[in-house]
Write a structure and sequence with these properties.
about 0% strand, three-stranded antiparallel sheet, single chain, about 70% helix, mainly alpha
Length: about 425
C-alpha cells in the first residue's frame, strides 16, 4: 500500500516502455555467446538430457539413488527460472528439444534440403497448448501418487519429447517455442524480467522489468499466468493439515481393501484442487480488471493490458515456496551426478559428498518468503502502474484504475503468506 502511494506521487509518466531497447553490448561478446558458446551449451544439454532419461528408464527405482527426480524437480524446475530472471532467455540454449531440432535443420540444410513447417499455427490457440503442457507437468508433480518414480518420469520425458519435436516439425521451431512448448513459454516470460536479452544477433542490456512493459493480447495469456501462479498456490495449500486431513478422510474407507480406488480418488481430488487454484488466480485477475474498467469507464477490456504484471509474482511464488528445497535438495545433485543410475559408481569423485542440511534456518526461510512475496507484488504493481499512466493521460484516471490492482496484489500477497504459514 505504501508502494501504491509512492508510485502515484512519483511515477507520473511511462518509463518502462521507453527503455525496452536498452543498449547493445560488445559485438565480439555477442558473437561468442550467441555463436560457439551457445552451440557448446546445446550439446551439453543434450548429453545431460540423455543421461537423465537413461537414469529414469534404467537406473535404481529408489528416487533418492536416481539422478532423474532431483535433476528434474530441483535443478531444472527451480534452477532454470532463477537463471532466466538473472541472465535472460537461457532456455534458448539449454533446451535439449530445441537443440535436437536445430541439429536436424542444420543437417537438412547442409545436404541441400529445406526445413519448412508442415502447417500454419492457428492464431486463436495462442498460448493454450503451452498452458496445457505446463499444467500437465504440475499435475505429474502434485497430483500423481508417485511423482518421484524414475520410471514414471522416464515415460513423461518420452511423451513430452514426442510432443515438443512434433510441434516444432509441424509449426516451426520458433512458433512452437513461442506458443506450445510449455517450459519455453514459461521461462521466456520470466526472462522478460532480466536485464539481459538478445535481439538481431546482439546481446543488449536494459533496466530489469522493462521487458514486461506493454500489453499482451495473445490468446491464452491469462490462462498461462493462472497456471504459473495457481499450481504453486495449490502446492502450498496441499501441504496444510486441512488438505491432508481431507485426503485422509477421502481415502480412508478404501485404502486397505481397495488401494487402487483410494489412489485414484486422491489423484482426482488433487487434479480438482489444481484446477481450482488456477481458476481462483485467473478469475481474481479478471474481476480486478473488470472493476478497473468500470472505475474509469474504459471503452474496452483491460485484461490484456495488465496481465504481464503477474509474471514477477509467479517468480516470487516459486522463490517463496521452493527456496529451501532448492538450497537443500539441490546439493544432492552433486553426488548423484557421479552415480546417476544408483549402481555404486563414482564417476567424478563426488559420490560421497555430504550435503549441508543446515544451510538455511527456518527463521531465515520465513524472512526470504516474506521479502520475496512483498517485493514481487510491488514489482507487479509498478508494471501495472506504468501501463496505467500509458493508457490514461488523465492522472486521476490512471490512479483510479489501479485501486482494483492494488486490492488484487494485497489479496495475492496475504493469500500467499497465509498458505505458507499454514504449511
Amino acid at each position: 500500500m505504501v508502494s501504491f502511494v509512492l508510485l502515484g506521487a512519483l511515477w507520473r509518466r511511462p518509463l518502462l516502455g521507453r527503455r525496452q531497447d536498452g543498449r547493445g553490448l560488445s559485438d565480439r561478446l555477442s558473437a561468442v555467446v550467441l555463436g560457439p558458446l551457445r552451440i557448446v551449451v546445446q550439446a551439453l544439454s543434450v548429453v545431460l538430457f540423455v543421461l537423465v532419461w537413461v537414469s529414469a528408464l534404467f537406473g535404481d527405482t529408489d528416487p533418492f539413488r536416481n539422478l532423474a527426480p532431483t535433476w528434474i524437480y530441483v535443478i531444472f524446475w527451480l534452477g532454470v527460472p532463477a537463471l532466466s530472471v538473472l541472465l535472460g532467455n537461457v532456455w534458448r540454449a539449454l533446451s535439449p528439444w530445441r537443440a535436437i531440432a536445430d541439429l536436424f535443420v542444420w543437417v537438412r540444410e547442409l545436404g541441400g534440403g529445406e526445413a519448412r513447417a508442415l502447417a500454419e499455427y492457428p492464431e486463436r490457440l495462442g498460448r493454450w497448448p503451452g498452458a496445457v503442457a505446463l499444467f500437465a507437468f504440475a499435475a505429474l508433480e502434485l497430483a500423481y501418487s508417485d511423482p518421484a518414480s524414475p520410471r514414471a518420469l522416464g515415460f513423461a520425458i518420452a511423451v513430452y519429447t514426442y510432443v515438443a519435436l512434433f510441434g516444432m516439425a509441424a509449426f516451426g521451431r520458433d512458433t512452437w517455442v513461442r506458443y506450445g512448448e510449455g517450459f519455453a513459454v514459461y521461462f521466456g516470460l520470466l526472462a522478460r524480467i532480466a536485464p539481459l536479452f538478445a535481439r538481431e544477433g546482439r546481446i543488449r542490456l536494459r533496466w530489469p522489468l522493462t521487458g514486461l512493459a506493454g500489453k499482451d493480447t495473445t490468446p491464452g495469456a491469462v490462462a498461462f499466468a493462472g497456471v504459473m501462479l495457481g499450481t504453486v498456490l495449490f502446492d502450498g495449500y496441499s501441504r496444510t493439515t486441512t488438505w491432508q486431513d481431507l485426503m485422509a478422510r477421502l481415502e480412508g474407507p478404501y485404502v486397505v481393501d481397495h488401494p487402487t480406488v483410494a489412489e485414484l480418488l486422491v489423484t482426482a481430488a488433487s487434479l480438482g484442487g489444481l484446477l481450482v487454484g488456477v481458476l481462483l488466480i485467473a478469475l481474481a485477475y479478471q474481476a480486478a480488471c473488470a472493476l478497473a474498467r468500470w472505475t474509469v469507464n474504459a471503452p474496452r477490456s483491460l485484461v490484456p493490458d495488465f496481465v504481464l504484471s503477474l509474471v514477477p509474482i509467479a517468480f516470487v511464488y516459486v522463490v517463496a515456496h521452493y527456496a529451501t528445497l532448492f538450497l537443500i535438495q539441490g546439493q544432492y545433485a552433486v553426488p548423484l551426478l557421479s552415480d546417476p543410475l544408483g549402481r555404486g559408481w563414482n564417476l567424478f569423485g563426488t559420490a560421497h559428498v555430504t550435503p549441508d542440511l543446515t544451510v538455511i534456518s527456518p527463521n531465515t526461510t520465513w524472512y526470504v518468503q516474506v521479502i520475496a512475496l512483498v517485493t514481487g507484488h510491488v514489482a507487479g504493481l509498478a508494471i501495472a502502474h506504468d501501463r496505467a499512466v500509458t493508457l490514461f493521460p488523465d492522472r486521476r484516471d490512471a490512479l483510479r484504475s489501479q485501486y482494483a490492482m492494488l486490492g488484487l496484489m494485497v489479496l495475492y500477497t496475504v493469500g500467499g503468506l497465509w498458505v505458507l504459514s499454514r504449511g
